[in-house]
Amino acid sequence: MWQQVELALSQSAHRVLVKLASFLPALLALLVAVIVLTLIGAGVAALLRRILTSARFDDRLARNSVAAISDWVPSHSPTLIVTRTVFWICVLLGCFIGISAFDAAYPGDQQLSLFVLPYFTHVVGAIIVLIIGSIIARFLSRSVLIGAVNAKLQYARFLSLGVKWLVLVLTAAMVLDHLQIGGVVVELAFGILFGGIVLTLALAVGLGSRDIVSRSLEKNADRDFEHIPAESDYKSSGSENLRHF
Amino acid sequence: MASTQTTPDAAPEATASAGNLLVSLTPLPANALEATLANLALAFPDQTVLVATPDAAPDLSTGGPLRLVPYTPQVTAANASWMLTAADYLNTFRLAEEHQATTCLLLGTESHTLQPEAIRGLATAALTFDLTVARYNLGPHERLVNSAILYPVTRALFCTRPRFPLAIDLGLSLRMAGRLASIAQKFAAANQPEALLWPVAEAATASYSITEVDIGARGIPQPAAHDLSALLNEVAGSLFAEVDSKAAYWQRARNPLPVRQLLQGSPAAEGAPDVTSMIETFRLAYTNLHEIWSLVLPPNSLLGLKRLYLAPAGTFNMPDNLWTRIVYDFILAYRLRTINRGHLLGALTPLYLAWVASHLVLTSAGPTIPEQHIQDQAMAFETDKPYLVSRWRWPDRFNP
Fold it and tell me: Least C-beta-crowded within 10 Å: which of A38, A187, A219, A225?
């Protein structure tokens, strides 16, 4: 009896050690691939930054308004965006190669990469969607806020928040869909949330701010009748004939 | 009367003969063109002048002083007739080269409202100086963007005098026209022929001689667009970009300027203008845009804005140094891309309206005449220039 237990334990320990012995090189291969590609990426990014800086890439791009990358990510120069993109592409490449190497070095019966690689691609896609969604949400939210304030709308912040959350909810739904989490529940929840926000905005603007709108309209109408109806905003800001330009 | 500013590089000798003068006109309606030509004939009765017009030229009797040069613009700018654009400078220089003119007059829209004496004054000064800028006699509530931003910034940073750095009537020597055309060519190549150029800054950078000439009253064309924010974005954005591109020059420029005499014919503001709408816009912005302003402005400026927010309409007064710091910090944020540049200039609009309201309250209630306040404001920009230079060089340094 005791011998059988001892045999079973030793066999288990042996199997664990064998698994560990085959797993560690695979893990090492993965880490080496990621580290090497990261270093290559850093080198390429540094080289690219130097080339773009010497070629005055930012100035050239600024002169060409067609490619206004900086409008979306204002705090970074186009050179920085390009070099960082190249760096992260190299890191991702390292991950892909590392997983393949891990799969090749791992002598298990299952082909791990068959499952991991597609899901890893989805995770990367989801992260990219999340980043882009956040940037767009911030950009649109600020655009709406500043535009609404300059249009003298009292509910500017509310509009801005509404737009921001619309984009964020849409982004979250896309991310979860990409990660294949939740399935139909996410779609349903997204529909309800998105529709709810739109309905709330419509009700708030249409009904809740009815008094504000009517007061604003009355005020404008009174001003128009009392003062200078023909002058546009930039020319006239009241009873005096102001010319900003 | 022309006030002059001669930079170390000597002005070209006034050897240009009258026949070498090219007057370049922007597109005009037929009757306005005829009136302009009549004024030009009165301005130059004894000399032959080339008049370039993109419009269909009327028949002129032979023997007159004007020689019309109708042309088809090689570069045209859409929707930008209220200001001189890169296309205008480019077309003028091409024509000047083609007809071997040594001096150019570039007259903007509504040039038919210019008096013959004013045109002659521009032409005379243009024979001596590289850049002659028109100085208009406007009402106290006109061209407020110029008074609030364009004039003080240009004067402080580029150490130049012209009161209207974005004037639409200019006299140019051939080398000045060539320099402006080379810059305009870059914009045209980038498919931006409607871009604004800053001749005063350009002349200062190149050490060319600059002068300004009193034009008197003139019809000032107004932009077709009605959105103040968009227009401010276009004009102030162009100036901020110019400041950014010429940082190497203006950080070194330290010409002390004599105190300016007030313009004759700049009357005190009459009546109390309605500033309620502008103050309301500022207060609405303060409650909503505070978060964005705090990305751009230091705490001291935010405190100043808070005081302004709490001030009643009757004593609504933005101190000169507060407005100076605001503009300088926005220029810096434009350079650093702290936030999106469109957002940045959009967030500047309510602050500009607050300045306008403060200016109007100050000049309508007290003894200060508008021009005095504008000169004081410009002086504050000059005094505080070291702040911008310091922050430009070390933007991350602690700034209370």
Answer: A225
